[in-house]
Amino acid sequence: DQGSESLDEIFTISVADIIEYTLTINTTGNGNVVKNPDQATYPAGTSVDLTANADVGWMFSDWSGDLVSTNNPETITMDGDKTIAATFTAIEYTLTVTSDHGTVTKNPNLPTYHYHDIVALTAVPDAGWSFTDWSGDVTGTNNPIFITIDGDNSVTANYTAITYTISGNTG
Fold first, then answer.
1. Is 17 helix (H, G, I), strand (E, B) or coil?
2. d(CA 84, CA 29)
3. Residue 131 CB coordination number (10 Å)
4. DSSP codes, 98-157
5. Measured CA angle at 42 (ends 37, 47), to 5 deg
6. Which residues of 37-69 are buried (b: 16+ CB within 10 A; e: fewer)?
7. What are phi and psi of 12, to 5 degrees?
8. Left if phi > 0, otherwise alpha if psi is -120 to 50, otherwise beta: which for 45?
9. What are the pLDDT digits (tens) for 57-98?
């Protein structure tokens, strides 16, 4: 039959070649998420590696939404549009104060602190003692003194016994 055309090539198109999905990443707390590959959309079946990076003073807690896990990094397969949240929590740090011959007040006085919290320390010597200085993670003679939390901290208030010279006449 003249005039009829023949199809010389056969094309195979799979659904995966035409369906694209979106991946939305949200964060709670201080940190970010790296997607690899980092694309606006992903063909169906694409594996995407997710790595949560916490800011200083924060730690990765978990994934939620279309990925429920505490593993980091994590890999997902794009089989639909996905929304995933990474949660970061502030690291709790301790401030240990040693004061053998007096008391030290902390303001604010909390059981734990977060990165870059500022705490005022005020030494109050016992009777017969005078405050000398601070040692440990903060040093100096200022009273009160301020410490910026940058991890678990330990501070000692140092004191000197007050000595008296007694003189008198006998007789």
1. helix
2. 14
3. 19
4. EETTEEEEEES--S-B-TT-EEEEEEEEPTTEEEEEEEESS-BS-SSEEEE-SSSEEEEE
5. 55
6. eeeeebebebebebebebeebbbbbbbeeebee
7. -115, 120
8. left
9. 999 999 999 999 999 999 999 999 999 999 999 999 999 999
pLDDT digits (tens, 9 = 90+) for 107-137: 999 999 999 999 999 999 999 999 999 999 9
Residue written as tokens 């079946």?
A: 45
**DSSP code string of 38-89:** --SSEETT-EEEEEEEEPTTEEEEEEEES--B--SSEEEE-SS-EEEEEEEE
Q: What angle do CA 75, 28, 21 make, to 5 degrees?
A: 40
Torsional sign, CA 122, 128, 132, 137 = negative
Given a contact cutoff of 8 angstroms between Cβ atoms, the answer to whether 145 and 97 are in contact is no
What span, in angstroms and rounded, lies between the C-alpha atoms of 100 and 159?
8
Q: How far is CA 85 from CA 25, 45, 47, 143, 169, in A?
A: 6, 21, 18, 45, 83
**Burial (Cβ within 10 Å: 0-12, 13-18, ≥19) of residue 24:** exposed
